[in-house]
Design a protein that fits this description.
Largest sheet: 6 strands, parallel
CATH architecture: Alpha-Beta Barrel
Distance between the termini: 30 Å
Low-confidence stretches: 314-318
Shape: globular
Strand content: 15-25%
CATH superfamily: Aldolase class I
Structural class: alpha/beta
CATH class: Alpha Beta
Radius of gyration: 19 Å
Helix content: 40-55%
Strand order of the largest sheet: 2-3-4-5-6-7
Number of domains: 1
């Protein structure tokens, strides 16, 4: 059995946190946050060191009015040097809009659960695969520089279907790689994963995908979000989705809590010596603003209440989590 010190020394020196609160978080909240607040959020997150932000989704405004201003947010995000601005798109029409607006990256959801896929997109996983192939072909034909990332959701289980076989996740993974997507991630959409499950699935998936499998998306539904991040980190994954204030969730997981909180994730990584480039004081100041903007909503996370421990502050010349 390896020593604990050996395990920690094997961790990567750097990791990327992609802030997805503006899309995954806000789409789960009924109120519509004013565009001015969203623009302030993007600027403040950038000032805090954030270099990947999912700014919204190109879906019909009648379905998700919370995200109707995605094009405006994307245009602003693209003015910030070094920021990778991504959007979620559910179909070819949304992908065409993302390319038209020159998004740096578009995220395509693909559920490994047949039941979840039908409930979420009204298509079977294989029908979604066919749509992904059309999107890749359209991107390549247009000469667009927008990267295509597929997020394989419900990869660890589903509230509608129950067990999702790892073999099905791996089948879909091979299929999207063969289709020519640039990146793939695995998502615990409904919070069923535990660290052992995460390790097993990533250990099977990484040899198939190599560097193209570079993102993990965890929900803290049952309190295991950060533990699951650590398990993926040990496998070599260095890019993670998170939501400020732990907002968000899945409509098909009733009563579930939200995503891993950005500030908690940044703290955990820093405390283990993994740099993220986040300025903790600025991150918490933004979190305080979010609490005002979303007054009455259930924000989550732990570190915002306590702040950095004195031991960590004494070990750093500043509060930058890098």
């Amino acid at each position: 059995m390896p020593e604990i010190s050996d395990t920690l020394s094997a961790l990567p020196s750097h990791a990327i946190i992609r802030e997805v609160g503006l899309r995954d978080g806000l789409q789960s909240i009924a109120r519509v946050l004013p565009t001015a607040h969203k623009l302030e959020w993007i600027q403040a997150a950038y000032d805090a060191g954030q270099r990947e932000i999912e700014v919204g989704s190109f879906v019909p405004a009648r379905l998700l009015p919370q995200l109707a201003d995605t094009a405006e947010l994307l245009a602003f995000a693209k003015t910030l040097p070094g920021l990778t601005a991504s959007v979620l798109v559910p179909n070819l029409k949304g992908a065409e809009r993302a390319m038209e607006c020159e998004a740096d990256l578009m995220l395509l959801p693909l559920s490994a659960s047949h039941a979840h896929s039908l409930a979420n997109l009204r298509k079977t996983p294989d029908e979604v695969l066919a749509e992904i192939e059309r999107i890749v072909a359209a991107r390549n034909a247009s000469g667009s520089r927008t990267l295509i990332e597929v997020g394989i959701s419900t990869a660890f289980g589903c509230t509608l279907q129950g067990v999702v076989a790892p073999a099905e996740v791996l089948r879909l993974l091979r299929a999207v790689l063969d289709a020519g997507v640039d990146r793939v991630g695995l998502a615990d959409t409904v919070g069923y994963a535990d660290p052992a499950m995460v390790s097993r699935l990533f250990e099977q998936a990484l040899p198939l995908a190599g560097a193209r499998l570079n993102c993990a998306h965890f929900h803290d539904t049952r309190g295991l979000g950060l533990a699951n991040v650590f398990a993926a980190l040990q496998c070599g994954v260095t890019r993670f989705d998170a939501c400020l204030g732990g907002i968000g969730g899945c409509p098909h997981a009733p009563g579930a809590s939200g995503n891993v909180a950005t500030e908690d994730l940044a703290y955990m990584l820093k405390s283990m010596g993994v740099a993220t480039g986040q300025d903790f004081d600025r991150l918490l100041a933004l979190r305080a603003k979010l609490a005002q903007w979303l007054a009455g909503e259930n924000l989550r996370g732990s570190i915002w209440r306590a702040g950095l421990p004195r031991t960590l502050r004494a070990d750093a010349s500043s509060t930058t989590l890098s």
